[in-house]
Structures are given as structure tokens and as C-alpha cells.
């Protein structure tokens, strides 16, 4: 039986090579795109779930209630982890964890800048990171301990075993002993690090982290499997009450849990509660994958229907000699599954061939390995779902034909069947329109981000780590920098202007309500900061060596409005109990991504030797020349540190890497969807032309021109596309409007985007249909009128 089904299916496919090739191509492209998306989604969903204890791991989050607003973040007091472990028996492990920082590690002749963090002593007991050498309990249990990755161990000592017990010099001023070597952090893990230092060392270096009123590090815990999570969270909620002395009637902080398995995907918060994040991109591309499979299945259905006239007599004869409808259904479903199987093989080949390019685009290391059960399940699911989706309608439709009417040559398709097929085309183009408009709006937003005036000039701005002798001899270094051709101006700052996440509520001024707690961003800078960044000072002046500015401040417009001074210049302001005066107001500039609104900011004059970034403004067109001179100067003045730098404009673009990748993927898959939809439209055009062959011949005999016949055959399809445009436009507007809400600053959704998308869809449809229409119109009338 099965052999007979596939034999007939193979013969039918060979007889109709063109239509079979189009069917297979459409299905293969749809399945290949879906496979790519599945691999990407699987990788995204796996982040946070790769640990043995992932189901019991949680991040402690803060929900801050202040000034009528609720803000959620993961910045917690540095002493929270140890206190939670002491106070709650449900907490079996707890560890603090910090942000990534670049530091220079030296061992022997090797001097390399590596990325490191601080972590609590329970870190390796909580997270099932493979230790090549050392034990979880002792890896970070002393202030002098350092745990390094396999990569670092291989680079400095040859292998993991030889690294244990060896000394590594940190930033050329402190020695640590290697107590553990861990496997390299997977490339898909968003929390990358090459080494870890102990929590005791972090607290020693950062005394502020011992204060309950300060936040900064993250706190991770592992609960007992028997713990009641809801009850624990209820006890945790007011844990800081009585410990944080800043609490008032208008300000307090509640603690809550975020499961480690959700931390990556659900990183967005609105009004203090989870609201989107990377999960939105996962959902978007999952919908795109479903659209592609649907469009490919519809394409198959339309093409199969277009050939149904040719198969009708076959069905009639088989029914007349006693074939049951069930056997016909099996036959046509078998044909669908054969085509789908061939398409799947081609799809797998395409994925294997283009996976390196896809990995390069997405920055991932995806694999399609046959030894993974999920892969086989996915491929089997694709085969079954696509086969059923593509073959069901043709199978049940053809098997339902009346043999008497068919053999009399009276086969006609009713209004219901015609409406169904046209509805499928409309549905295809609705999905295509959604993808086209979505892609255009994503790229408009990305263009808006890249070209928006963020309040300072990020072009030709270079950041150099302020390390070693560069910090100790800054005056000499900055003077020498200004002598280098191509260097226009120099300053230093505590933070990179793209990463200013330091906030404080310890700000007061005369007339301030003592119960009104306001969070201010703050950063320390040196002279010429405004000039180097090209930040506009709209009132007052910049910091100057001619004045005693050590306790004076610059504030941004948002801070001036929040403080409430009508004329802020010269007015008093106190931060951390240290009084000073406002000497100037700078125009608002963005110091975080455009996902976040500009917040009040205080800029203070920092000590000459207390900074992390040297900012250099270069002459346009002379950056390469300037960098060569800067490198030579750094190597001569700071031989214990490798020369490194970063461009602020590149860092700015990297902030939106995720959106750029999703936008590029959407573009590629939108083009595929349009192409596959056009195959379906081609099938319906072929079907229509075949049905109206005799009519076309009569019209040509009566003098109709090729142009009029092409117009006659094309207008019906253009009507379908116009209907799709009308239906898709409001849906596309709503979907993209919701997507843009994740940005505090948004590009305008212009009417021309929908007009352009609609016009593009009409042009593509017209080109597709015209090919078949012109072919039918050019057919000789004598040949057309012989068709019965």
C-alpha cells in the first residue's frame, strides 16, 4: 500500500516538474527559515536553564517606591547575601555578584587585559560551572583568591593544572593566588567573565557597599527545594525596613524574587513589575516562523488546487472502479508528505550551508547536531505539521469530487472554493504586509537611534582606561597628549558616558521636603569635560582651575527642574552631606540607552587621581594618526599595562545590538515570506488562466489586445492585495506601536511607511501575476479554443 502510494506520488511529481519544483522550493525555504528561528529561540530559552540547580536559583530584586514612581532594578546592598543566609533557613546558598570590569592580569611575561567580576564564596556551589581545578567551597573563600577561566590558565600557565597555586598580579599593584580554574563561560551566556575575585576583597575595596542605604551589586540566592517560594518572598518583602535609614513616608524599598530561568528573557520592567524584555523578540520571531510555515503551506495548497483540473479525471476514474475516498485521501496526503520530505532534506542542507553566516549575524554558536533529541523531535514535528498543513485541503477537496460530473467534463468550482483560495492569498499578503511594515518601522527606529542628537558629540571620541601611571601622572600625560597631532582636547571621568549608572538619593537643598526622596545620577569629571564631550552649558560656566570648584556642581536641565530653583546658578546644593554650589546647568544629554528617559544628574569635580576613563577628542579625519601617537605615549609612560581603547560611537551602537539583529532577521525573513507568497500567487494565477483558457481564446478572436487581457487577469489579484493592505495596516500599526513603547524616545510612525509597504506589495504582486497573464494572453487562439 505504502509503496503504491509513493510510486504514484513520484510519477505525479515527475509529470509536473515545474509545479513540483515550485512546491518543493516554497516548502524548503519556509522550513529552512523556521529551522533557523527554532535554533535561535532554543538558544535564547536555554539561557539561565543550563545550571543543575536552575529551578531553585533566584535573583534578589529591589522595587523602589519614590516620588510617586515605582522603579525595579537588581542593585542591592553588598552585605545583603550574607545577611539573608544568616536570617533565613530556606536560603542554602547566597552570593553577591558585580558588574564586568576590565583589568590587567600579569604573570611572567604575559600582560593581558581581561574581564573580571567579584563573586561571593557560594558562587560555584550555586552555579554548576565546571571546575577543572579546585573545589567550589574553597575557590573564593579568601581575600587573596582568584578563580580564572581555562582560557586565562592556558594563556598564562599552559594548562589548568599548572595554574593552581600560582600568583597573578592584578593591575600591577596587587597579587592574588589562583585557587580554581573554571571552564570558559559559554558564548551564549550574557554574563561573561575571565576571572572572579572574592567578595571579601570587593568589600575591602568598596567600603560604601557595606552600607544598607547603598546599592550596586547583584544578590543571588539558592533556595531549598522544599522551600515555599511565595511564603519566603512575603517574608523577604520588607527585609530592608529598619536597616535602610533613608526610608520615609515617600520612599521605601521592597525586595522580591526573579527566577534565574526568567532573568534573561524577562529583563524589562514597567512601574516596578516585569514587562517584556528579550521574550518579546522570541515571541516575534516565533510568530514569523509560524507565518512562514503557513505561507508555505498555503502556497502548496494553491498550487495543488491549480493542478486539480488535471487530476480530476484521474479521481473520477479511480472512484468509478471502486476506490474509496479514504484511499484517495491517503494517496494525496502521501504525495504531500513525499514533497515535504524532499523539501525538508533541502531545508536541512540549506541550514547546514548557511548556519555559519547565521551565527555571524546573530553572534551565537548554534549547531544542528543529529545527536540532540530535540533536533530529531523538531525535524519530525516540521515534517508532520508541514505535511498536514500543506496536504490536507488538496487531499480532502480532490477526494470529494463527484465521479459522474468529472467524467462528463462538468467540473466547476463553487463560490465557496473560490472564496477559500482567494482568502488564502489575502491571508498570505496580510502576513507579508505585517512583515514589510514591521521591518520598515524597526529600521526607522534604529536609524532614529543612530542619528538622534543625544546631547553630546560621540564621533571622534576615544575612551582610554585610566590605569597605572596614567592615573598617577595624569597632568603630565594629558599635557603630552595635547602635543600629539590630531588630538584636540582631553579630560577624564569616573564613568564612560554610555554607562553612567551611579545614583544617589543623598541630595538636599534649601526648601526640599525631607520626606521627598529623589534619585539623582551622579558622576565625577575633571576640567574640560563639557568641552571634550561638546555638551552645551545653557547657564553658568564649566569647571575651571581658576576657581575653587572642588565642592561645586554642574546639573542637567532635568535636575534643575526637579530641584525647582528658578535661577539655579550660585544656589546651594548638598550631596552626601558635603555642601557646595551649582555653577552651571548643562543641556540634557543621554548617558544611558534611549530605552530609558533622561533622569536628574549631578556632575561633580572629581579628584585628579580618582577616575576610570580618559576621554580624548580627536580631529575629524585624523583619528588613526592620533591613536598611533597615543599608543606610543601610553607604552612609554605605562609599560606595565597593554594599550587599549574604545570608540564611544561604537559603544553606542552596541547598546542596540539586539534590536539591530532582530531587525536584520526580520528583513531576511520578510523577503522570504514575500517570495513564498508570490509563489502562491503564481499558483492561483496559473489556476485562473487555466480555467479561463477558452474565454481568452474567444476574446482574442474578437480582437482583444494582449494588454487588455493582461489587465483582465491581473485586476482580480490586485483587488485581493488591496484587501490585504487594508486589513493589515491597522494590525501592523498596533503591533509596532506596542514594540516602540520599550523606547522612551521613539521615531514617529509615519503614514508613508504603510503606503510604501502597500505599494511594494502591489508591485510585487503585479509582476508575479503579469508573468502568467502575459503567457496566457500570448497563447494562440486556435490552441486555446481546442482546449475542452
Kindly provide the radius of gyration, computed on alpha-carbon positions and rounded to a whole number of angstroms: 34 Å
What is the rounded distance between the termini?
34 Å
Shape: elongated
Q: How many structural domains?
A: 4
Largest sheet: 8 strands, mixed
Fraction of residues in β-strands = 15-25%
The helix tally amounts to 26
What share of the residues lie within helices? Answer: 40-55%
Mean pLDDT: 82
Runs in which pLDDT lies below 50 for 5 or more consecutive residues are none
Structural class: alpha+beta
Total count of strands: 26
Give an account of the 3D structure:
With 788 residues, this protein is of the alpha+beta class. It has four domains: 1-47 and 279-412, no CATH class; 75-229, no CATH class; 423-451 and 655-788, no CATH class; 468-640, no CATH class. Helices cover 50% and strands 18% of the residues. It is built from 26 helices and 26 strands. The strands form five sheets. Strands 17, 18, 19, 20, 21, 22, 23 and 24 form an eight-stranded mixed β-sheet that branches. A hairpin with a 2-residue loop joins strand 4 (101-107) and strand 5 (110-119). Helix 10 (278-306) runs parallel beside helix 22 (657-691). The mean pLDDT is 82.
List keywords for this structure.
788 residues, MacB_PCD, 18% strand, six-stranded mixed β-barrel, transmembrane, ABC transporter permease, alpha+beta, transmembrane helix, ABC3_permease_C
Amino acid at each position: 500500500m505504502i509503496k503504491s502510494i509513493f510510486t504514484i506520488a513520484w510519477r505525479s511529481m515527475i509529470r509536473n516538474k515545474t509545479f513540483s519544483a515550485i512546491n518543493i522550493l516554497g516548502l524548503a525555504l519556509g522550513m529552512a527559515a523556521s529551522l533557523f528561528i527554532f535554533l535561535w529561540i532554543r538558544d535564547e530559552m536555554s539561557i539561565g536553564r543550563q545550571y543543575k540547580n536552575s529551578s531553585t536559583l533566584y535573583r534578589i530584586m529591589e522595587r523602589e517606591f519614590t516620588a510617586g514612581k515605582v522603579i525595579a532594578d537588581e542593585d542591592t546592598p553588598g552585605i545583603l547575601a550574607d545577611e539573608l543566609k544568616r536570617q533565613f533557613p530556606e536560603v542554602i546558598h547566597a552570593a553577591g555578584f558585580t558588574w564586568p570590569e576590565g583589568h590587567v592580569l600579569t604573570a611572567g611575561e604575559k600582560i593581558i587585559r581581561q574581564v573580571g567580576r567579584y563573586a561571593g564564596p557560594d558562587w560555584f556551589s550555586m552555579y554548576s560551572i565546571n571546575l577543572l581545578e579546585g573545589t567550589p567551597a574553597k575557590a573564593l573563600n579568601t581575600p587573596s583568591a582568584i578563580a580564572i577561566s581555562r582560557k586565562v590558565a592556558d594563556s598564562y600557565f599552559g594548562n589548568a593544572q599548572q595554574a593552581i597555586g600560582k600568583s597573578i598580579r592584578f593591575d600591577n599593584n596587587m597579587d592574588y593566588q589562583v585557587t580554581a580554574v573554571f571552564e570558559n563561560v559559554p558564548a551564549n551566556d550574557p554574563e561573561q567573565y575571565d576571572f572572579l575575585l572574592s567578595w571579601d576583597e570587593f568589600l575591602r575595596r568598596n567600603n560604601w557597599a557595606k552600607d544598607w542605604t547603598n546599592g550596586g551589586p547583584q544578590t543571588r540566592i539558592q533556595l531549598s527545594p522544599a522551600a515555599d517560594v511565595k511564603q519566603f518572598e512575603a517574608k523577604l518583602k520588607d527585609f530592608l525596613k529598619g536597616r535602610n535609614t533613608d526610608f520615609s513616608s515617600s520612599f521605601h524599598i521592597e525586595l522580591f524574587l526573579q527566577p534565574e530561568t526568567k532573568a534573561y528573557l524577562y529583563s524589562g520592567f514597567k512601574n516596578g513589575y516585569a514587562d517584556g524584555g528579550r521574550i518579546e523578540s522570541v515571541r516575534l520571531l516565533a510568530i514569523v516562523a509560524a507565518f512562514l510555515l503557513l505561507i508555505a503551506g498555503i502556497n502548496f495548497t494553491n498550487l495543488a488546487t491549480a493542478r486539480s483540473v488535471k487530476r480530476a479525471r484521474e479521481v473520477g476514474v479511480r472512484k468509478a472502479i471502486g476506490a474509496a475516498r479514504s484511499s484517495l485521501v491517503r494517496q494525496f496526503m502521501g504525495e504531500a508528505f513525499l514533497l515535504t520530505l524532499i523539501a525538508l532534506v533541502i531545508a536541512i542542507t540549506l541550514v547546514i550551508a548557511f548556519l555559519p553566516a547565521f551565527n555571524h549575524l546573530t553572534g551565537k554558536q548554534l549547531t544542528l547536531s543529529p545527536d540532540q533529541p530535540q533536533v530529531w523531535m523538531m525535524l519530525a514535528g516540521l515534517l508532520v505539521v508541514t505535511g498536514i498543513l500543506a496536504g490536507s485541503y488538496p487531499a480532502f477537496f480532490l477526494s470529494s469530487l463527484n465521479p459522474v460530473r468529472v467524467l462528463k467534463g462538468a467540473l466547476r468550482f463553487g463560490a465557496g472554493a473560490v472564496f477559500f483560495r482567494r482568502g488564502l492569498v489575502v491571508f498570505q499578503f496580510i502576513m507579508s504586509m505585517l512583515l514589510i511594515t514591521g521591518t520598515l518601522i524597526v529600521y526607522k527606529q534604529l536609524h532614529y537611534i543612530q542619528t538622534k542628537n543625544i546631547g553630546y558629540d560621540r564621533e571622534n571620541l576615544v575612551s582610554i582606561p585610566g590605569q597605572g601611571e596614567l592615573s598617577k601622572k595624569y597632568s603630565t600625560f594629558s599635557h603630552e597628549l595635547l602635543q600629539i597631532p590630531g588630538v584636540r582636547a582631553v579630560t577624564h571621568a569616573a564613568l564612560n558616558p554610555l554607562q553612567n549608572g551611579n545614583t544617589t538619593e543623598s541630595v538636599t537643598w534649601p526648601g526640599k521636603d525631607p520626606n521627598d526622596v529623589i534619585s539623582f545620577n551622579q558622576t565625577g569629571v575633571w576640567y574640560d569635560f563639557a568641552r571634550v564631550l561638546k555638551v552645551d552649558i545653557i547657564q553658568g560656566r564649566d569647571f575651571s582651575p581658576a576657581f575653587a570648584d572642588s565642592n561645586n556642581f554642574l546639573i542637567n536641565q532635568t535636575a534643575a527642574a526637579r530641584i525647582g530653583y528658578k535661577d539655579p546658578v550660585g544656589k546651594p546644593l548638598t550631596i552626601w552631606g558635603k555642601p557646595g554650589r551649582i555653577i552651571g546647568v548643562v543641556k540634557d544629554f543621554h548617558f544611558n540607552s534611549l530605552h530609558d528617559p533622561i533622569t536628574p544628574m549631578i556632575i561633580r569635580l572629581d579628584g585628579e587621581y580618582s577616575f576610570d576613563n580618559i576621554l580624548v577628542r580627536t580631529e575629524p579625519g585624523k583619528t588613526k594618526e592620533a591613536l598611533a601617537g597615543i599608543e606610543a605615549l601610553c607604552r612609554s609612560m605605562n609599560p606595565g599595562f597593554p594599550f587599549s581603547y574604545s570608540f564611544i560611537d561604537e559603544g553606542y551602537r552596541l547598546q542596540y545590538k539586539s534590536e539591530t539583529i532582530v531587525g536584520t532577521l526580520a528583513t531576511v525573513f520578510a523577503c522570504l515570506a514575500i517570495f513564498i507568497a508570490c509563489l502562491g500567487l503564481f499558483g492561483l494565477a496559473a489556476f485562473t488562466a487555466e480555467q479561463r483558457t477558452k474565454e481568452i481564446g474567444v476574446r482574442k478572436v474578437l480582437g482583444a489586445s494582449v494588454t487588455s487581457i493582461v489587465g483582465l487577469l491581473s485586476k482580480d489579484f490586485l483587488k485581493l492585495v488591496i484587501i490585504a493592505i487594508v486589513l493589515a495596516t491597522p494590525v501592523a500599526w498596533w503591533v509596532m506601536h506596542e514594540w516602540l513603547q520599550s523606547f522612551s524616545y521613539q521615531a514617529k510612525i509615519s503614514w508613508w511607511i504603510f503606503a510604501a509597504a502597500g505599494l511594494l506589495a502591489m508591485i510585487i504582486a503585479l509582476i508575479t501575476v503579469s508573468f502568467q497573464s502575459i503567457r496566457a494572453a500570448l497563447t494562440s487562439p486556435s490552441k486555446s479554443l481546442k482546449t475542452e
